[in-house]
Amino acid sequence: MRKLAFVVFLMCMVALPSAHASALAFRHTTTNAEILVQTVPGPTISEKVSSRAKSSWSWYITRASGLFAALSLIILMVSGIGQVTGYTYRFLEPLTAWASHRALGITFGISILLHVFSLLFDHFVPFNIAQLFIPWLSGYKPVTIWGVHLGSLYVALGVIAFYLIAGVIITSLTWVDKKPATWKLIHLLSYFALLLVFIHALYLGTDLAHGVFRFVWVCLGLVTILFCLHRLWRAKTV
After folding, report:
1. What pLDDT score does 161 carry?
2. What distance in Å separates the CA atoms of residue 222 and residue 68, rounded to the nearest whole number?
3. How many angstroms from the chain centroid is the CA of residue 216?
4. Distance between CA 192 and CA 104 in Å, rounded?
5. Inter-residue contact 231 to 85 (CB < 8 Å)
6. What is the rounded distance in angstroms from the CA atom of residue 124 to the CA atom of residue 78?
7. Buried b / exposed e across 106-117, counting CB within 10 Å, b at 16+?
């Protein structure tokens, strides 16, 4: 019995170095595999994001400023109608309501300028100064309706809306007290500008091309139309 135990002990001692060598070989193989995985060539995720941001920053500014301008225009229209009908003053004091409306109008104008001039630096949708400020000069996304070629209709609507909005904002800052009658007539152009902006964004807006955002934009347009109709019914005037 003692001899058998001694033989088993010797076999274990002989097998131990080989098992240790196998474990070292396994660890060595695993370590080599890890090194191979870590040294695979190619840019990292942060490098990819940084490269994309550098090449597309103007496009992101154009989209963000356009969306902000569109939403702020709707808020301006609704709050302005609320001031005419008196509903806004249920939530805000008159002075606060007018100050907020004025500040939002200035912010809206700044977002429009960002939206327009950022297109000069965009590499995917090329525009020059003349195309940005002269309707139908651009050839971007030409439109054909019932066989009639209308050129870059949706871009042209945006250009026309830009001039209308500029007139409304400038006269609101300078003529609202000095020439109230003239200011009121020019201010009514904001309704027409809203329609042009709605069509411009609906057919050219990247984020409004389809899906939930397009549905929300259409719903906001319908709600604004209801507010406009209510304003006309209350005031009995255009």
Report:
1. 96
2. 18
3. 14
4. 19
5. yes
6. 35
7. eebbebbebbbb
Q: How far apart are CA 203 and CA 200, in angstroms?
A: 6
Cα angle for residues 96, 99, 104 (degrees, 5° grid) = 120
- Greatest CA span in the chain, whole angstroms? 121
Q: Give per-residue pLDDT as tens, 3-12.
A: 444 444 444 4
Whole-number Å distance between alpha carbons of 49 and 72:
30
Q: Which residues does 151 contact at the CB level (< 8 Å), separation at least 6?
A: 136, 139, 142, 143
Closest Cα partner for 197 from 160, 168, 143? 160
Amino acid 165: pLDDT: 95
User: Residue 203's pLDDT is what?
Assistant: 93
Per-residue model confidence (pLDDT) at position 68: 93
> For the chain, first and last CA: distance in Å?
116
Cα gap 105→111, rounded to integer Å: 10
Report the alpha-carbon distance of residue 70 to residue 201 in Å, rounded: 8
Grouping H, G, I as helix, E, B as strand and the rest as coil, residue 150 is strand
Domain ranges in the chain are 1-41, 56-235
Q: Pairing relation of β-strands 143-145 and 148-151?
A: antiparallel
CA-CA distances (angstroms) from residue 93 to 82, 85, 90?
A: 12, 14, 8
pTM for this model (two decimals): 0.74
Q: DSSP class of residue 136? A: T
Say how far apart CA 104 and CA 168 lie, in whole Å.
13
User: Which has the closest alpha carbon to 163: 127, 135, 125?
Assistant: 135
Residues of the chain falling short of pLDDT 70: 1-55, 235-238
> What pLDDT score was predicted for residue 48?
53
